[in-house]
Write a sequence for this structure.
């Protein structure tokens, strides 16, 4: 149980800071550049991405586990009506993963768009075209594909990710996206007051700042290994404690 909780914690930390989707994998650059002019708008976009990426991860994990992957129970049952059990167990529908994931993402975005339009009209107007463009935000599709890679083709089935790990990656990735875009928005608000050389105005200085941010986030490299060592005792120390416990107990009984 402790090992599982540590895994969950480290997956979230890695997705949010160490392997930040925007600044490490460079996915989701379109909204990162387009909606990072004001902190309020950037934060609203980040919250929308967190919600969408969480719903998309939930849907994609469920469909991948029960429908798409080889030996998925629903697919195996349906295929068993037309073929032998051995052939049904080998049916692989992962080729449909891109279509299924994009459908899940677009459905989630439509729900978010209706909710924001109804309850937050100023935010809806501020986000403009970038809100429906969350559908094409490759950071969300990237999270779904990473989750699929941790389920399908794993050598040891016991190592396949469960729903908790998948959702942690998605939420951590969404939080990392929010952190990156809010930091960028704060810097760009200050840049509006600076005398930026004319060749670097606009997207040029934005991309330069993004590169500097990426270099800064590289400082988190290795933090996950240090945290894992700090939170999990060394096997030798655990063995020594286990061996010392019976001896100490035996001494008390003997006395």
């Amino acid at each position: 149980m402790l090992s599982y909780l540590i895994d969950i914690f480290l997956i979230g930390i890695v997705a949010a800071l160490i392997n930040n989707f925007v600044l490490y994998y460079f996915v989701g650059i379109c909204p990162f550049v387009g909606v990072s002019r004001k902190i309020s708008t950037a934060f609203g976009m980040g919250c929308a991405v967190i919600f969408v990426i969480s719903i998309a991860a939930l849907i994609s994990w469920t469909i991948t586990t029960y429908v798409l992957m080889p030996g998925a129970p629903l697919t195996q049952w349906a295929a068993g009506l037309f073929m032998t059990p051995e052939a049904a167990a080998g049916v692989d529908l992962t080729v449909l993963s891109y279509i299924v994931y994009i459908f899940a993402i677009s459905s989630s975005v439509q729900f978010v768009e209706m909710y924001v339009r109804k309850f937050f009209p100023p935010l809806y107007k501020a986000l403009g075209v970038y809100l429906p463009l969350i559908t094409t935000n490759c950071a969300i599709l990237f999270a779904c594909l990473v989750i699929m890679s941790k389920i399908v083709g794993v050598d040891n089935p016991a190592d396949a990710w469960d729903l908790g790990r998948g959702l942690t990656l998605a939420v951590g990735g969404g939080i990392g996206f929010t952190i990156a875009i809010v930091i960028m928005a704060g810097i760009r608000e200050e840049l509006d007051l600076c005398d930026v050389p004319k060749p670097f105005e606009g997207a040029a200085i934005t991309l330069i700042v993004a590169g500097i941010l990426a270099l800064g986030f590289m400082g988190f490299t290795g933090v996950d290994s240090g945290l894992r060592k700090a939170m999990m005792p060394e096997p030798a120390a655990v063995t020594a404690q286990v061996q010392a416990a019976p001896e100490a107990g035996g001494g008390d009984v003997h006395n």
User: Anything to note?
Assistant: The mean pLDDT is 83. The chain has twelve helices and no strands. The radius of gyration is 23 Å. The CA atoms of residues 195 and 231 lie 47 Å apart.
